[in-house]
Amino acid sequence: MKLLVVEDEIDLLEVIRQSLEKENYLVETAGSYVLALEKIVSYEYDCILLDIMLPDGTGLDLLAELKQMNKSDNVIIISAKDSLEDKIKGLEMGADDYLVKPFHIAELNARIKSVLRRKSLNGKNTIEHANVKIDLDERQVWIDGDELVLNRKEFDILSYLAVNKNRLVNKTALAEQVWGDYMDGADDYEFIYSQIKNLRKKLKEKLAGIEVQAVYGIGYKLVVA
Amino acid sequence: MNLLNYTLKYLSIALLLVISIWAVLFYFNMIDEVQDSLDDGLENNKMLVIQRVEKDSGIIQRSGFSEHNYEIKEVTEKSGLKFKDKYQDTLMYTLNEEDMEPFRMLTTVFNKDNKYYEMKVVSSTVEEDDLVRSLLYSLIWLYTAILVSFFVINHLLLRRIWTPFYLLLKRLKAFRLDKDQGIETGRTEVKEFKELNAAVESLVAQSVGTYGSQKQFIENAAHELQTPLAISLNRLELLAENEDLSDQHLEAIGQVIGTLQRLTRLNKSLLLLSKIENKQYGEVALLSITTLTKTLISEYEDFAALKSVQVHLKEEGPLEVAMNKDLAAILISNLLKNAITHNIAGGTVNVSIGPNGLVISNTGRSVALDPEKVFKRFKKDSQAQSSTGLGLAIVKAIIDLYGFGIQYSYTDQHHLKLNFR
């Protein structure tokens, strides 16, 4: 999978690149409109992360160019402008998703994978790790063909961790994903632990080939045992 | 005491003084004039009598005034020669008044046939006490009339002249730095008021500008901090994924991440506050507070369970409010978060929703908080280290934005009462 990251903030660009490379993507970067346009014209990408505010142009113009060239590259807009109009405009112009800066890397991963899954053949929205299969549309989990019944929060935690397999997902990102944006500021997210505990127990009972590991007060990660 | 009455007060004192002095001067002047003219009359009478004496010496023998206004008596040559005309005030009995009345008397001496006669000519004069009394009454009437007319003129005319001033005052009283963009002053022809209006307008414009740029600064600062904070966190997370790290290192990284997250939360809250105050949450919809509260209570279930706090909802009627959806959620969730955080193990949070408002009560420290300070920024319970101290400040900002009301009270629990009307 080949990705292009268009972002003028070098620090952020670097963090995104490093993080995506851990997912074994081929990552190319562009720090300006001109550089990005050059790459877009010359190559095909599976997914393009597009910043709207660039020093020499706007990401929306790049998006327009892309559509004019009839390219089918997937586009996720990343922008600090969280106004609704920008969001709608971007999506209307053919972007696949919209992510407001600042975002958690885990969230970016999830969005990219979701876009790529939708693009890939037969459009099945499932994740498989070891003997565990997660159907994101039907919100069902099977272990060796056996259904594992989870409550809403457990399912959200499992799927979010599964999308970010082997990656550290911090507690804030997890809480925002599962409990909603309004939970932030509520202590140290210790309350996540009780749901994680239940999830682990259920996975273990069904002899799942994956497990949820805690990473030193930072967060959790899902690994294949 | 207002300005009109204030001037009236000093004017009445000054007027009293002026009128009193004038009255004294007027009185003495008048008395002087009266005596002068009486004396002239007496002098004339004297000459008439002397002329008559030349023709009819019989009257010299008369003594006593009886029906005439003179009396004549003979005096020695010695005293007659020495004598000079003398005017004096005296009292005489009058029949009509049956009392002693004031008279002006001229005493003179004349010579007839080498005999000296003393003659007294009298004329009735003004009764001074009567004069004083009637003068006093007139003056009191005059004084009252002046004051009343001044009062009326003041209220009719001056009130109109001062209208721009009172208008400005009214607008200044209603002025809110965080709400109004400027101040409108009325038109006036009076130079002083024109200057006052101009001064107030420029002062207000300056304040509004400063306030605006300060608000803008906070928002910009918070906004600019977001990305560096996020990048630092991302970098630390990438670092934490490194396989070679020891547990000790991971723990240290975890602590830094925790601190940075607190900073991020604080920054987010500041940004939110600025956005609320800068009215960046426009879209308003009619939404059910009851439904929203139910959803949020279920989201806070785990958090409440961790804190061993029971949350109860009591519905006393439907509550629908027109406000921004996000702000409503932030409002209710901040209240819930606050009630759960500042609670005791085994404590309760009671939310009751009625047609007009919502009351959220929670157990907690058994000391009433200062209602003045509850909603202040960075006012926090020292025990809750990770709280930003902005939760209730945000609640207050949202309440103020929509003109709702909120009150804190303490009985055996802490109560926050929201009024959406």
UniProtKB/TrEMBL annotation, chain A:
GO terms for biological process: regulation of DNA-templated transcription. GO terms for cellular component: cytosol; protein-DNA complex. Keywords: DNA-binding, Phosphoprotein, Transcription, Transcription regulation, Two-component regulatory system. The keyword Transcription applies. Residues 124-224 form the OmpR/PhoB-type domain. SMART domains: REC, Trans_reg_C. It comes from the Bacteria. The modification 4-aspartylphosphate is found at residue 51. This is DNA-binding response regulator, OmpR family, contains REC and winged-helix (WHTH) domain. It comes from Pedobacter steynii. The lineage of its organism: Bacteria, Pseudomonadati, Bacteroidota, Sphingobacteriia, Sphingobacteriales.
UniProtKB/TrEMBL annotation, chain B:
PROSITE patterns: HIS_KIN. Keywords: Kinase, Membrane, Phosphoprotein, Transferase, Transmembrane, Transmembrane helix. Residues 220-405 form the Histidine kinase domain. The chain crosses the membrane at residues 7-28, 135-158. It comes from the Bacteria. It catalyses: ATP + protein L-histidine = ADP + protein N-phospho-L-histidine. Gene3D superfamilies: 1.10.287.130, Histidine kinase-like ATPase, C-terminal domain. Pfam families: HATPase_c (PF02518), HisKA (PF00512). It is an enzyme of class 2 (transferase). GO terms for molecular function: phosphorelay sensor kinase activity. The keyword Lipoprotein does not apply. GO terms for cellular component: plasma membrane. InterPro entries: HATPase_C_sf, HATPase_dom, His_kinase_dom, HisK_dim/P_dom, HisK_dim/P_sf, TCS_sensor_his_kinase. CDD domains: HisKA. Its EC number is 2.7.13.3. This is histidine kinase. It comes from Pedobacter steynii. The lineage of its organism: Bacteria, Pseudomonadati, Bacteroidota, Sphingobacteriia, Sphingobacteriales.
